[in-house]
Fold:
Amino acid sequence: MTEADLYRHQVRLPAGAEAVVAVGDEVGPGDLLARTVRVAAARSVPVARPLRRKRGEIGDLLLVEPGERVRADQPLARTPEREVRSPAEALFLSYQPSDGLAHVLPLEPAEPIRSEVRGIVVEVEERSITVAVHGVPMAGAGGTGPAVQGPLSVLVDDAEAILEPAAIDADSAGRIVVGGSWASAEAITRARAVGVAAIVVGGLHARELADFAGLQHRRSLLGSAAPPFAVLALDGYGRAGMDPARFGWLKAHAGQPATVLGDGRRLLIYDASPAPVRVPRAVVGDRVVIVSGPGRGQAGLLSEVPAQPMAIGSGISALCGMVRLDAGRTVSVALANLEASLPVS
Amino acid sequence: MGSGHAEWTTAMLAETGDRPLPEGSRAASEVVPADVDEFATTDAMANLAARPMAVPSSVAEAAMVQALGIDRLAAARRWLGGCPPVDLLVGGGRLLAAAVHPGDAALALLDGLRPAGVTQLAVDPWGICGPLGTLAGEDVDEGMETLRDDLLVPLGTAVVSRGGRPGQVAFRVRLHRPGWPDSTRHEVRVGGVAVLPLERGASGELEIELERGVELGERYRARRMRAAVTGGAVGVILDARDDPIQVPTRPGDARSMIQSWRDTLRREGRPAAG
Structure:
C-alpha cells in the first residue's frame, strides 16, 4: 500500500476547538486530538479599585489586548505594587474607564475530541484534523453507534445466512461480529449484552435500528457504563442478502483488527487487501449486485440490456438489464437498481 | 447520524399537517394502497432515501414514493402560505415525470398542492423548464419555439373545490366542446373525485354550478360559471375532496379510499408510454 493509497479519515472540529496534535503524530483510537471550549457568561473584573488608581489612569497599566486569550491567574493589569489577574481561562474583551471594570468571557472546557482510528496525523486545519490510516474502508447503507475497535469475527458460513442470537456467545466479547444477510433485534440485544463491539450485516430493519439508536441515546444520557457498541448495515434496510463479494472480503480478513463507525456508516479494516468496488452504470458482461427492490443483495452476471424500456414490478417503465443470478434464475432488473461489482485489482 | 434516513423519512410523514396522517412510519403503511406492514414500509422508505436514484421496484415502493412526494408538496404549500391561484401548474422531477401512470402524477399534484379553482396541469418530463428559465429573454422565446409541443406533457384540467358537507353534491358540471353534442350533466359529491375524458390537444368549456357552502377559491366568486378547459393524458378532473383532504381514521378504509381515487384517475387516463 503506497502513501497515496492510505485512507484519509477526517475529523471535523467545532468552531474554537484547539488541536493538541501536530502533523506526523501517531494516534490510536481514543487518543486526544483536540479540545473544545465553551464560552460562559461574560464576567466583570474590577481593575481600577484593586490597583488604587483612578478609572481613567488604567490604559497604560493593561498587559493584554482586547480579543486576547488569557490563562487563569494571568495578570491583566499591573502597577509596581499591585496586579489584577484573570479569574479564569478567558477571552479578554475590554476595559471600561467609565466604571473601572474589565470584561472577560470565561472559556470552559467541553467535550474532548478523540481519534476514532489508528493512523498518522497528516493535516491539521482550523476546522478539521485528517488522519491517514493503513486500512481499507467499506461504506454501509445504515448504522448507529460510536467508533468501536476489535478483531473481525465472521459467525456465519455464507452471505445469505442470518446472524442467529445463539451464535453470539461470550467468546464474541470485544469483537466486531460479521453476520450474513440480516440480524434481528434479539440478536443485536444479545450482542450488546455479551459485550460485542459491533455487528456488521447485510441488512437491518430500519425501525429496529432507529429504536436501538434511541435506546443507546437514552442510556448515554443516563451515564450507562456499558461498553460502546455499534451496528452497521452494509447493503440496506430489511432482510436482504449481503453482497457475496463483500462477504468474501470480510471473511478473508477474519481476525484482522478493524474499526466500525456506526454513526459514520463505515467499516475500516487495518492492513487489509483492497475491498471489492461497486459502481453504478453496469454494462453487459459485468458482475452485478441488485441494490434496490426485490432480490436486493443478490449477485449475478449482466447478460443483456434490451434497448427498449420494460415495465418492472411497480409498473414503472425503465431501462432494464437481464441478470443471470448466481442462484441460477435470470431476472430483469432496472439498471438504476444495479451496481457493477468490479474485480479487485 | 446513523439512523438519519429512517428518522428523516418517518419525521417527514409525521409532520404532514394538511393530510391528517397518524404519526410515524405506521402512517405510511396505513395510507399506501398496498398491503405492507410498518417494518416493510420503514425499510422501503429508508432504502429509497439511502439510494435516491433507485427506481421503485414494487407497487408498495411506488406508492410510498408517491406518498412522500405528496407530503413534500404539501410542505411546500404550507411554506408558501397556501397554493397561489394559477392558470397552469407544471410538475417536474422524477416522481411526476416517471410516474407509473399520468393519473398518479395528477393525483400527487392535487393531493399535495390542492390548487383551488380551475387549473391546467402538466408535467415537465425532461426537466427543461428550469434550464430554460436561466436563458436570456430572446433565447427563451427561441427555446420555446424549438421545443414547443415537446416541452410539457399536459395532464388536463382540474376543478378543485373546498367546503360542503361529506356526501352532499359539491358541484355539477357540463362539458361543451365545439362541434360535439353537449355532454350529460355530471354531479360530484363532497369527498369524491371524477374524470371527464378530454384528450390531449382538445379544448372545451366547462359549465360549473356550485352548491351552497362549496367554493372554488378567490378567483371564482359566482355560483354558476363557465371556464375554459384543455385536455391531456388524464382529462378533466373534478375534485371535490375538500381542503384539507380528509381520509377515514380506520387504516383499511383510508387505504381503500386512496386506492379508489387512484383507480378513478387511472381509468380515464392514458397509460404511461412504455
About this structure: The longest helix of chain B spans residues 59-80. The first strand of chain B starts at residue 88 and ends at 91.
